Amino acid sequence: MLQRLVEMLEYTSVLDKAAACSDCYERMAYVAAFSISAYSSTASRVLKPFNPLLGETYECDRITDLGWRAITEQVVHHPPVTAIHCESNAGWILSCDLTVQSKFRGKYLQITPIGTIHLLFRDGSCYTYNQVTTTVNNIILGKLWLDQMVEDDAGNVRWTVTGKWDSRVELKKGIEGDEETMIGWERRPLASGSEKYYNFGQFTCQLNEPEMGVSPMDSRLRPDLRLMEEGQWDKADQMKAALEEAQRFRKRARDIGDLPPHNPLWFASKPSALTGQLYWQYKGGYWEAKEKKDWSFCPDIFTPIE
């Protein structure tokens, strides 16, 4: 699930363009295009991701090639809440926490992400938006199209955003005239045979590559995940059950005072400077700990109870 959240960052080149804009309306159009790009993989990805353990983290450091790095942490177990913080050399910071509400209606499942995404640019401008409800149907008819406009406070159309939510978004200044249409975002095609690999694209596959020096609570170090990737399905299922039982054991120990209350290592719940709403904000320290190679304060969450 932590890696799934980082997938929203696949098309951060759109945010790089937004950061370079001097026109606030043009920037807003690019922000809209980026927000849409996060849904590009959902049409072909219907399997449920792993439930993270409390305290589980995932880092994605793409500074050398994409100019950004992100850290995520499972900050609350019930209801499950995941926090993410991403900072870019291009001049933007993305942060949010996310929980999901789901409703089963017999023939379809509604999944509603709860949490506001904050985008802060180097010049001090900040944008917030919420993700939309996704409905999983047994039969999907037709294609969804986008036809949205960016207006100013007087209702004047400044930029037009059009396209398909799962493939391409185009931007155009104003609504009429000979203004050039620009590609705001375009989905990269999946490789041939991707249906054999859960319809993962190249970026998604790269997210699970092992990396040296990560936190001992990083998702890639989960023993059940490694067993599953090796094709040992029965052992993976047994290990997953054992890890979750160990998590329940720790919760019972905290409830009776044998263990101290759980406090997230990298995020703290504070009011948003814009909305006033509480959300989990990065408090720093992760990349410094990685540089020092000091994870001595991290609990062991990936060892089953003997």
Report mean pLDDT, rounded to a whole number.
Answer: 86
Low-confidence segments: 142-150
Structural class: alpha+beta
Q: How widely separated are the two ends?
A: 27 Å
Class of the domain at 2-196, according to the CATH hierarchy? Answer: Mainly Beta
Characterize the biggest β-sheet. 8 strands, antiparallel
Family: Belongs to the OSBP family.
Pfam families: Oxysterol_BP (PF01237)
Protein name: Oxysterol-binding protein
Keywords: Phosphoprotein
Structure description:
It comes from Ranatra chinensis. This is Oxysterol-binding protein. Pfam families: Oxysterol_BP (PF01237). The chain is α+β, with helices and mostly antiparallel strands and 306 residues long. 23% of the residues lie in helices and 31% in strands. The strands form 3 sheets. Strands 1, 2, 3, 4, 5, 6, 7 and 8 form an 8-stranded antiparallel β-sheet that branches. Strands 9-10-11-12 form a 4-stranded antiparallel β-sheet. The chain is globular and about 70 Å long. The protein starts with a helix and ends in a 14-residue tail after the last helix.
